Amino acid sequence: QVQLVESGGGLVQVGDSLRLSCSASGRTFSTLAMGWFRQAPGKEREFVAGIRWNGNYTYYADSVKGRFALSRDNAKNTGYLQMNSLKPEDTAVYYCAAEPFGGSRIASAYTYWGQGTQVTVAS
Q1: Is residue 23 within 8 Å of residue 17, measured between CB atoms?
Q2: Is 108 exposed, middle or buried (0-12, 13-18, 19+ CB in 10 A)?
Q3: CA dihedral 83, 45, 106, 78 (to 10 degrees)
């Protein structure tokens, strides 16, 4: 089993930055691919970014490419989502997820999920 806990969300202004963290415990984090998803009120959960187990490959949704950066520190069992140039449409609950294979843009591929952290971007 893996427990994931997100932190770092909050209320920011348009153009601000936030860094979300995802701390893992349980099964060795370094063996898992990690993804971030978000869900806005009334909308489906959508893929944001993903990273392979060793951090050597990242991929992003088009809506965040060039603004968000995903990284991980396996020694600390933590992943980080750096979010820059935030927009009102980035407002959502952000979830980190992990799975033991190569990662995916599809939420159903992930086995482990955190409880989510709210990000609100005020215009």
Answers
A1: no
A2: exposed
A3: 40
* Assigned token pair, 58: 């990242």
Q: What token pair was written down for 12?
A: 């920011």
> 93: helix, coil or strand?
strand
Query: Distance between CA 45 and CA 112 in Å, rounded?
Result: 15
Q: Model confidence over 30-82: pLDDT tens digits?
A: 999 999 999 999 999 999 999 999 989 999 999 999 999 999 999 999 999 99
What's the start-to-end Cα distance of the chain, in Å? 40
Residue ranges in the chain assigned as alpha helix (H): none
What's the pLDDT at 61? 98
* DSSP 8-state class, residue 75: G
- With H, G, I as helix, E, B as strand and everything else as coil, classify residue 96: strand
Q: How far are the Cα atoms of 2, 21, 86 from residue 114, in angstroms, in the given order?
A: 10, 11, 22
> Which pLDDT score, from 0 to 100, does residue 1 have?
85
d(CA 48, CA 30): 20
Token pair in block for residue 114? 């955190």
Q: Which residues pair with 39 in a beta bridge?
A: 93
